[in-house]
Design brief:
By secondary structure, the chain is α/β, with parallel strands linked by helices. It is 55% helix and 14% strand. The protein has 8 helices and 5 strands; from the N terminus they run βαβαααβαβααβα. A 5-stranded parallel sheet has the order 2-3-1-4-5, with helices on both faces. The longest helix has 24 residues, at 138-161. The protein is globular and about 40 Å long. Bound molecules: P1-(adenosine-5'-P5-(uridine-5')pentaphosphate (UP5) and magnesium ion. P1-(adenosine-5'-P5-(uridine-5')pentaphosphate (UP5) binds next to α1, α2, α3, α6 and α8.
Length: 190
């Protein structure tokens, strides 16, 4: 309905920084709907179509899919959820993603939550994860790191300049990280 406030928080961090893990805890505590850009793409990649194959290939190389496609998937998931509070996990990954989101969705995020974690720790976590993800091999992990540093860091700087960055130290244990995350989300409604 018109006038109804929609709350959106972007959650970003390098590969294996703990975005999905922290989002699951935010959902439980604060009633958000978790939209993982990577999970939405992995669902699409299952289709044996030209688009499915294209997504699979890009993800296996650690590259980014087109902004229009990922924004379309996010928009669809938002409409279907029935909720008015969303965590957008793993997006926007570059400036083009951010522009596409702004042009199509028109809802300003409250802030960008950045889970800051060292490369060594992220690599260790991903190699231990064992969830059968095709992109969890050392070659693709390195490419994902490079994309993060070259394309995603500028997005983080953009929100920092606007005073809309919330950064947590992701190198600690899950519950320690969540203590800081909780304090950030607790401020949302005041
Ligand atoms: N773990 C988590 N937190 C821990 C902690 N504090 N201490 C110890 N262990 C911790 O965590 C990773 C592992 O570490 C897990 O085993 C967890 O138990 C443990 P997880 O929460 O899964 O980390 P996350 O940051 O979600 O890692 P993920 O691998 O999902 O991040 P990526 O950013 O690499 O993956 P994503 O799924 O977002 O994207 C995959 C690909 O999709 C991209 O490479 C790209 O090709 C494509 N993509 C796009 O093209 N466009 C988009 O907009 C989004 C994705
Ligand atoms: Mg994830």
């Amino acid at each position: 309905p018109p006038g109804k406030k929609i709350t959106i928080v972007f959650v970003i961090g390098g590969p294996g920084s703990g975005k999905g893990t922290q989002c699951a805890k935010i959902v439980k505590q604060f009633g958000f709907t978790h939209l993982s850009a990577g999970d939405l793409l992995r669902e699409e990649a299952k289709y044996d179509t030209e688009q499915g194959t294209m997504i699979k290939n890009l993800m296996n190389e650690g590259k980014l899919v087109s902004s229009d496609l990922i924004v379309k998937l996010l928009f669809k998931a938002m409409r279907e959820s029935g909720n008015d509070k969303f965590l957008v996990d793993g997006f926007p990954r570059n400036e083009e993603n951010r522009h596409a989101y702004e042009n199509i969705i028109h809802i300003e995020p409250e802030f960008l939550l950045f889970i800051d974690c060292s490369k060594e720790e992220m690599e260790r976590r991903i190699l231990n994860r064992n969830q059968g993800r095709d992109d969890d091999n050392i070659d693709t992990i390195r490419r994902r790191f490079d994309v993060f540093q070259q394309q995603t860091l500028p997005v983080i700087q953009y929100y920092e300049k606007r005073g809309e960055l919330r950064k947590v130290d992701g190198n600690r244990q899950v519950d320690e990280v969540f203590e800081d995350v909780k304090a950030i989300f607790a401020q949302l409604n005041n």
